[in-house]
Amino acid sequence: MASRSPTRRAGPIVRQKTLKSAIGCTGIGLHSGAKVRMTLHPAASDTGIVFRRRDLDRDNEIAALWTNVSDTRLCSRLSNASGASVMTVEHVMAALAGAEIDNCIVEVNGPEIPAMDGSAAPFLFLIECAGVTEQPLPRRAIQVLRPVSLADGDKRMTIAPGGTLTIDCTIDFDSTAISRQSITTTLETATFREDIARARTFGFAHEVAQLRAAGLARGGSLENAVVIDGDRVLNADGVRFPDEFVRHKVLDCVGDLYLAGGPLLARVRSERAGHELNNLILRELFSRDATWRRVDLTEDLLAATSGPIRGQPQLVAG
Ligand SMILES: [Zn+2]
Questions:
Q1: What are the structural domains, with CATH classification, of the chain?
Q2: How many CB atoms lie within 10 A of CB 317?
Q3: Which residues surround ligand 1, an ion (CB under 5 A)?
């Protein structure tokens, strides 16, 4: 790989970014059904993304890191050591990743990020309305050095060395409303905005009662999700893209992988994977020193290309 050659110059540094000003919105949590006010605040260099529960008196900050993921049933939940938690962080995390925001306090006055329309577009809109500003320090990226693979039944995921995050994603459902869909996308702000951010979360009508009994999907409706009944989409306006479902899976993957603690220089292949595998693959990646390193981000590192993804998946234990 040319970019690792010691004789080659590192290229211009890519600097950290935050918001120019605070901006907020109010909505309903998809799973809790709770009405929540969310405010995105600018933050100093090297703060990272931090969630703050404004309704709790103390120990109310939770770093947006893979180590703090405490639940991956239908959404990614983050918890700190004191038990403070925030549900459904993945869509706002995807918007922050797509907009290349390194430092931000995401403040909420309840247990869940508001669902808005079930996509990342409203959050990206907020970030773009607030404006984005560069900070003095370079972005800290996570460079993948060796492929890491996991398999759980027919779900598979591989992270391999690369430049700007590229995701190959495939899903396969029995419902002919979805069936098999594949997409490959590279995480650049314009591509994310046009191709991925507007894709909504989706669910099946026959699962709603079961989910609600488990305390999930209580705020879910046709306003914030694509709902499928058998082979039919129930939403009157249909879908936003013919392959909106796989695009949303990419959105979730972008948000979940941003819990690495910075941009991943990697090529990712995801087959039928979800929040659980998105988190387990980060745990696998960070479990060995030889598979990754932290780097100050340069344009050259982003431009690095990767070859075909190889590697035998490890089976997920348990
Ligand atoms: Zn989602």
A1: 15-138 (3.30.230.20), 140-315 (3.30.1700.10)
A2: 7
A3: 201, 252
